[in-house]
Amino acid sequence: MDEKVPLLPQTEDATMRRPTPKRFSRFHAAAFAFVVGLFWLARTWQCADPFHHHEDEAESKVPLEIHIMSKCPDARDCLEKLVVPAMANVSDKVDFRLSFIGKTTDEDDGVQCMHGQTECLGNILELCAASEYPDPKIYLGFTMCLSRQYQKIPKKELVEDCALEHGMDFDTLNDCMSREDGAYGMDMLRTSVQRSADLNATISCTVRLDNKKRCIRDGGKWKDCEGGSKPEDLIRDIDKLYKESKGWTE
Prior knowledge:
Blueprint: H1 26-47, H2 57-60, E1 62-68, H3 73-90, E2 94-100, E3 103-104, E4 111-112, H4 117-132, H5 136-148, H6 156-165, H7 170-178, H8 183-198, E5 206-209, E6 212-218, E7 221-223, H9 231-246
Parallel strand pairs: 1-2
Antiparallel strand pairs: 1-5, 3-4, 5-6, 6-7
Helix pairs in contact: 3-5, 3-9, 4-7, 4-8, 5-6
């Protein structure tokens, strides 16, 4: 990818004031302010929900990450049979991340993809979808839509249809793909591929839950799926981890 490759092969505030007594000293003012402060502090304590302490919601979400290749049938099956159905039920409880598998090199702009250059473009396209539309329910649906016809990635007709289906703007995706003459997307892909390598996620699809390997889809079969490979199994595990992160007990 030595040269730019396009996405397609072608009122005024009126306040009622109470008269101030002539002998309203600084001491009185300070005392008044103190009492008012106590009053509002008490109100705040009364109105606060004892079960919500304004904690950072992101900190209590369960990390869920999948490592895939855009033109891989196992990635398609992993999304369709496990990840997307589970996310439909627990998306508000997870900190989701989509990562890609490849090889970083000093050639081909720094990344090689198992299924060729079109797969690299597909990976970048799906990273752009996640970047421009960060709600996992949106970009995961788009990614699954593409994967159903992964052989056609990144043909314009397929991308347009999937973008329309999931409320995305085709031009927005195309702009991301061609930003900085393609360097922006390639940097995202290289970072993503390096992350997968650092985490020893080398098989598409690898599912990691709570920063641990949870399940693998390889060669049309589920492997190393302790606890089960069905959506309800993953949902159960996420619910358990989420309750633990909140300090909730049964």
